[in-house]
Amino acid sequence: MHHRKPRSSNKTAVRLGAAVTAGLAVTAVTGTARATPFGTHITPRVAVAVDTAHSHADRIHVNQSDISFAIHEYGPTIAVTANNRATAVATGCSLQNPCRSVALSYQIVTTAGANARRINATNLSRAVNEHCPACQTLSAAYQFVVATPRLFHISSQARGELNDIDRQVDALRTSPLPIDQITRRADELAQRIKTILDLEAARAPRTSGTADPLADFVPTVTMHRHIR
Questions:
Q1: In the Cβ-directed half-sphere of 174, how many Cα atoms lie within 13 Å?
Q2: pTM: predicted TM-score of the whole model, two decimal places
Q3: Cα gap 176→211, rounded to integer Å
Q4: Is the separation of the CB atoms in 104 and 71 below 8 Å?
Q5: Where would I find the H helices in the chain?
Q6: What is the pLDDT of residues 147-175, one digit of tens each?
Q7: N or C terminus: which one in the chain shows less Cβ crowding within 10 Å?
Q8: Distance CA 82, CA 74 (A)
Q9: Is pLDDT of 225 > 80?
């Protein structure tokens, strides 16, 4: 079994993960920081985040799973594209020896500025049984987009809580629980993530006054869920 967990992206660099059997993870950010009389100013950048979990079970590898848990924390952006996918495939197993394939992908993206509410977000899951009538497949993709008017960072306390959830998601990778219970547990962990991010967004910096062009921008957390 292959387990891949992309970590937080570097906010001022470009990083490309190598293609592996479980899929492709990419984080790309372009932007510059320049000194001003009032400190360092971060120029808005273009950001791309791609995360996948891909599990493939067959008669040789009967019980397979893949988990992805990624946090991409961006500041002011010109444009953000976020793509999160989970794919579970079971193929060619027999009634006497059925396959089991589980793929879970959790993606968190934070972005700020006037364009933060126009993020291009895609969140998909796909489960396939090929010539495998008794096989079990579960693919679940969870995507969380935090949009704020001003530069925002997830607090160290929240990161600790998210790291704990990451470990619990990891435990589902080898869990013997039935598929319906794994689905329920995955949903519960997703709701916990949403609660943590809602509390973080509530403390995010707001606009300075009614004359501010972002005065009507209330920080939001949008959760996308797709399960097959």
A1: 6
A2: 0.83
A3: 57
A4: no
A5: 156-172, 179-202
A6: 999 888 999 999 999 999 999 999 999 99
A7: N
A8: 12
A9: yes
